Amino acid sequence: MTMLLEASGLYGGYGGVDILNGTNLTVGDDEIVVIVGPNGAGKSTAMKAVFGLLHVRQGHVRYRGDDITNARPEQMVRRGIAYVPQEHNVFPSMSVRENLEMGAYLMSGDISARMERVFGLFPKLRERRHQQAGLMSGGERQMVAMGRALMIEPSLLMLDEPTAGLSPLLIDETFERIREIRDLGIGVLMVEQNAKQALAIADRGYVLATGRNRYEDTGPNLLANQEVAEMFLGG
Amino acid sequence: MNEIVQLLIYGVVLGSILTMGAIGVSMIFGILRFAHFAHGDFMTLGAYIGLAFISAFGLSPWWALPSGMIGMAAVAVLIDKVLYQRIRRTQPVILLISSFGMALVIRAAVQLIWGSDNQSYAKGIQFPWRLDILGGLRIKPDHVWIVLIAFALVVAVHLFLTRTKMGKAMRAMSDNMDLALITGIPAERVITWTWVIGGGLAAAAGVFLGIDTRLYPVMGWTALLPVFAAAILGGIGRPYGAIAGGMVIGIAMEMSTLVIPAAYKPAVAFAIMVVMLVVRPQGLFKGTL
Amino acid sequence: MELSGFSAYLVSFLTFAGIYAVLALGLNMQWGFTGQFNIGVAGFFAVGAYTTAILTTPGSPAYLGGFGMPFLVGLGGAVITSSIIGVIIGLITARLRTDYLAIATIGIAEIIRLFLKNEDWLTNGVRGIPAVQRPFADTALDSPLTYLLVVALFVVGVYFLVERAYVSPWGRVLRAIRENEPASAAAGKDIARFRLQAFVVGSAIMGLGGGLYAHFFGFVSPEAFRPLYGTFLIWVMLIAGGSGNNRGAILGAVIVWGLWSGTEMLTGMLPSEYSTQAAALRVLLIGALLQVILVTRPEGILPEKAPRLIARRRDKQ
After folding, report:
1. C56 in a domain, yes or no?
2. C208 is a domain residue
3. A135 touches B at CB < 8 Å
4. What pLDDT was estimated at residue B127?
5. A194 and A10 Cβ atoms separated by less than 8 Å
6. For residue B281, what pLDDT band results from cuts at 50, 70 and 90?
7. Orientation angle between helical segments B219-233 and B2-32, nearest 10 degrees
């Protein structure tokens, strides 16, 4: 069976210095996969490499069996991969509604059904649809960003630290939404600093260190792993 | 008092013209991240393209406006495809010097094709309307038309930016370039449209200048400084600010003739710009495209 | 000693090239070393030329002047006034991004030209200031060839000055700022201050170039400092020669001045009624040349040889 996403042996980095040293990742349909690891492990870099934002020097990224290594972001989006960066992930001067419209830029035809689906997941966005995104709180902006990404009705949603800077209450809510998104049949690949909580909802997890896979297992198994807990999850 | 109102009217006319240029400069800056130094000469070329069109077909002067705008939009896109696009990929900052070179190339081309002498769209002198109620104000019909058409064009740009998919994509690119790319917004197409609008509006400014006075090869270059001043005053990268910036600069330039020689009008625009750069470099208004 | 035909032309050509080399070295200090975008070279050029013209010419009731000062005093004045303008512009723009600097410098250049054109009491307006003398005027040494040697001396002097600056710790900081501003700021460097210093030194050198020009040409008028002659050619020279490389700046000045003069010969063959068109054609050609260089070889003939201080980050979209 071909996986939704299969990245194998990725090498790449900035200015000639590799940050990824043979990273492997797979994501199946409707599963949440979490990447955790210490700072500088290459977690976000791996996401960028998968999405074509960072040149992959060696290795392959396959999506439903097709080679998409170093494809342009536009092609990724057309294939159904959506990516939410950690910071600057909304169009600040545009309204919530316009942000969502931009998410569906490459989709032709009526987008109101898509928007309804996003509003169904994030009812608050419907209330705030005329508000300027740049003036919203961090949690609301994260919803706008995820909503924007969902507008293409992706098969794979990539989230770079979706809970960074959020209050504990909002973190719980965000993870809850991510589970709902998975239950819609969307594969989720995310990087998380709140590793314990993220692994708790994850189907599978990867522990990355210095750009290599250190551990990979189901979420609960990684949480139960004494070594992982001591080294990366703060005891 | 009368003199002041008269100058105010001239200021609004000049402000309308500058606004046409400043919106383009501001949009180009917002989306392509560089100050386009050939914009003044885009104005010149647009005006001359209009002139060529009306003299070729023997049409009335106002036809210079649509023909100049369409022609200049096409030339602007062509220049981008042939030149700016290549430089954009390698060294973005070099676009500044390339556009400065382009300014001289366009001016030379205008001289080569149309010569250096003054030209005008219409022969003869237009008689102004006299408004006796305000103590004999003189208003030229052309001035009224310039302001009205400029206003209509501003409304059109506004509708484009807020109601159309492409317009919104332009705002998105100006807001957050990286996110726009991640979202799948096709950057090159947005850039092409930026040149269509920037080039078209520059031509409108040039035709208005030509109608107001006359056409000559450095007409646009002379206007470049006030246009930049208007764009900076409005907050560069923000076309709505450019409207206010254009008006302030236009009125200030005309009003300044009460106290200093008219030759220093561009210096007034420059002085306002410098004060702005020192005091409030982000411009008068917040918000982007 | 009168030079004949070709050799007279050659001396004049080399003198001009030398003056432009000084200007290009000044621009290299600003753009090549520090990444500051001065598109108002003409302004500094003009201020230098007019300063020395006013200081050294015999008097005239029509405008300020008649100080009859010696050549070197005139040049010193040129350096001082252009430095002052440089300080003013630099203070305003040192903290701003490079586009604003470009706009501000083009503005100041235009305003200086307006000023020279309109303030007759100081500059004699559009009529300009005539009779600027060469050094050693009225002595046996006075000749175009002597002046070429004087200019050559200044080119060499300025070259050694900027070359020393380039390799000095000060020059290293400038390059570090150009390559990576945040890192330099993090290293505790007062970026605005270093920028301002480089900008003023560059302006002073341009003023010197202006002074040398005035004494060579013998006549200054606002028209000589239009953006084409005063700014554009110098940029083409620096970019063609190699931004950041002082030898490149000098080589670029000689080559581009050669091309520019060469096109004059070519268009000179056209009938005289086409003279306006001929001038436009030359600008068109040199403008096209610049674009070709920018697209095909933006590093110039002699690329900057110093090792990059910090690897350039090309990862960002």
Report:
1. yes
2. yes
3. no
4. 67
5. no
6. low
7. 80
Number of compact structural domains in chain C? 2
Look at residue C278 and tell me if it is in a domain: yes
CB-based contact, B187 to chain C, within 8 Å: no
Distance from CA of B245 to the nearest CA of A (A): 20
Contact (CB, 8 A) for A178 and A203: no
Sheet holding A156-160, edge to edge: A81-84, A156-160, A187-191, A32-36, A204-209, A212-218
User: Which tokens belong to A91?
Assistant: 């169009």
Q: Using the 3D structure, point to which of C169, C194, C225 is the last residue of a domain.
A: C225
Residues making up chain C, counted from first to last: 317
For B175-245, strand residue ranges (E) read none
Nearest C-alpha of chain C: how many angstroms from A54? 7
Name the stretches of chain C with pLDDT < 70: 1-3, 65-66, 306-317
**Interface contact A83, partner B, CB < 8 A:** yes
Fold of domain B2-121+132-279: ABC transporter involved in vitamin B12 uptake, BtuC (1.10.3470)
Residue A14 touches chain B, beta carbons under 8 Å: no
Residues in C closer than 8 angstroms to A16, CB to CB, are 311
**Of residues C307 and B268, which shows the higher confidence score?**
B268
Rounded Cα distance between A173 and A166, Å, is 10
A vs B: CB pairs below 8 A: 62
pLDDT of residue B288: 45
pLDDT of C2 reads 55
Does the beta-carbon distance from C276 to B228 stay under 8 Å? no
* C141 and C46, same domain (yes or no): yes
- Among A110, A175, A177, residue whose Cα is nearest residue A150: A177
| Candidates C102, C104, C114; nearest CB to B96 | C102
Q: Which residues contact B196 (CB under 8 A, 6 or more apart)?
A: B73, B76, B77
pLDDT value for B134: 63
Domain that holds residue C261: 226-304
Q: What is the mean pLDDT of residues A175-198?
A: 93
* pTM for the model: 0.90
At residue A39, the 3 state secondary structure works out as coil
Say which residue the tokens 């050693």 belong to.
C136
CB contact under 8 A, A16 and C314: no
Partner C contacted by B84 (CB < 8 A) = no
pLDDT of B286 reads 46
C132/C208 same-domain check: yes
Q: Encode pLDDT of A122-163 as tens digits.
A: 999 999 999 999 999 999 999 999 999 999 999 999 999 999
